[in-house]
Amino acid sequence: HVKNNINDTIGSDHAPHLKANKDKEYPNSPSGMPGVQTLMPVMLNHVNDGKLSLNQLMNLVCENPIKIFGIKNKGFIKEGYDADFTIVDMNKKIVIKNEKIESKCGWSPFNDVEFKGTPVATIIAGKTKMKGGKILGEPEGTPLEFN
Length: 147
Known about the structure:
Layout: H1 19-22, H2 39-48, H3 54-69, E1 85-95, E2 114-124, E3 127-131, E4 134-135
Antiparallel strand pairs: 1-2, 2-3, 3-4
């Protein structure tokens, strides 16, 4: 469905619940899973497999959400917009490991799965905040503005 442009957006559904809580039988376990750190490797792997184009991925995770929610100064690389972007290596292979998950939960449903294509740097407001898989500096942010 993604390749045929049926979906408008893709998000991480980042819900970093502890494994002890997720291991409970549903409905006693919380819904969702950690995903912010694995979204791009999963989706870049799909691009490499021909399931969607890189341009479609950019629309799904950057441009379309900004248009749908009316967020100002985000989603595009152009003058007057925040300098937020991710640099990816489409050929770099990585294996997701629970011990490398940055969220407090410390696990991923993709543990021990190999992906081709991964972010190598993330720039937020012109500052490098992730490089080579390592988070840099302290968390910071500014409120979003809406149209």
